[in-house]
Amino acid sequence: MDILHLVDRLEELFNESSSVPLTHKVMMDEGRLLDLIDQMRLAIPEEIKKSQQIISQKERIIAQAHEEANRTIELAKEQCQKLVERDEIVQKAQVMAEDIINKAREENNQIKQEADFYAIDSLEHLEIEMTKILAQVRNGIQTLKYDKTSEKTQSGGSRNGNQQN
């Protein structure tokens, strides 16, 4: 399940919760909340899998570029060999072959650079999203801890207040 969807569900659970009168606290269904937290824990590895898929995709693109470059280089060598056999155009053949090889190398470098940029951009975006999610989860946990601490403090204070009356 998408982690952002789970964060939306957490917010929905918060919005559906009952507020405690005269406080900034809410009462939430503990079972639903814990279930949501468990689902979030399971969803985060999915986000990591996505980043691994992006890296694999980049590696496939690079491998394809290498294969294409190698095929182009081999083709250039074959063409060069054929041209060399014709003595009248030996010099032209060498120049053409070198141009083809250089172009193949440039294309290979460009494809690799584009794949690197794509992977970096995707991973940076994923990092930003995961940082936001982590901050939201931590904020939710802190809110719940604060609410629990406040409830204990208030229930302790009510007992003392009842004893005075």
In short:
The protein is mostly helical. It has helices at 3-16, 30-85, 90-164, and strands spanning 18-19, 26-27.
Task: Please characterize this protein's 3D structure.
This protein has helices at 3-16, 30-85, 90-164; strands spanning 18-19, 26-27. By secondary structure, it is mainly alpha-helical. Helix 1 (3-16) packs antiparallel against helix 2 (30-85) and helix 2 runs antiparallel to helix 3. Strands 1-2 form a two-stranded antiparallel sheet. The longest helix is centred in the C-terminal third of the chain and has 75 residues, at 90-164. It is built from 3 helices and 2 strands. It has a domain at 29-135. The protein is rod-shaped. The relative contact order is 0.11.
Sum up the overall morphology in one term.
rod-shaped
Strand residues, percent: under 5%
- pLDDT < 50 runs, ≥5 residues: none
Radius of gyration: 31 Å
H/E element sequence: HEEHH
* Termini Cα gap: 53 Å
Tell me the helix content: over 70%
| Residue-averaged pLDDT | 84
Q: What's the count of strands?
A: 2
